[in-house]
Design brief:
Structural class: mainly alpha
Mean pLDDT: 89
CATH architecture: Orthogonal Bundle
Distance between the termini: 37 Å
CATH class: Mainly Alpha
Number of strands: 0
Order of helices and strands: HHHHHHHHHH
Oligomer: single chain
CATH superfamily: Hypothetical protein af1432
Largest sheet: none
Low-confidence stretches: 178-194
Number of domains: 1
Amino acid sequence: MNRPTEIQVVTRAADFAARRHTHQRRKGEAAEPYVNHLAHVAALLADAGADANLVAAGYLHDTIEDQEVTHAELIEAFNLDVADLVAHVTDDKRLPKDRRKRLQVEHAPHLPPRAQMLKMADKISNLTALLASPPAGWSTQRRAEYFEWAREVVEGCRTAHAGLAGMFDDLYDKREHGSSARSHGSTIDSHASDAD
């Protein structure tokens, strides 16, 4: 069997992700199709100069966590590199939510640089969505706490790509300044999983 071209890797990843996330919606008031988030993450990575495997991982980054796809399935459908990139940014859903979020902060500085780029693109997409269409019922404080937690995660990744770090900073600066999470130390909203 011929090795797939780079464009085939990316388009197959888009197709795979769209099929696996067919019934999933974003938690924002607009309830956008979840694939919009995946496409945004992939586009951010492509614009940042990422290679095809990393762009593909942008489409696939939530498949293990949200759709019960296995690492082995991703190896079979794509390759080990793509599967490993996705695994690097996958939370262990068996753990309590607050522990998963703390682990993202702790693990971020130790991820390979390409996985750090993926992590930053995910957070950029999440903050973009949170600004445009916050989940119904999220108070200003809850949104501020999510922004602060995302900043903690990105702090551990920012050296991987200055452009993505700058984009994140621009979005972070647009946050609402209600009850600032910064004044509460490193508070993490245990209910802010809608935009992990």
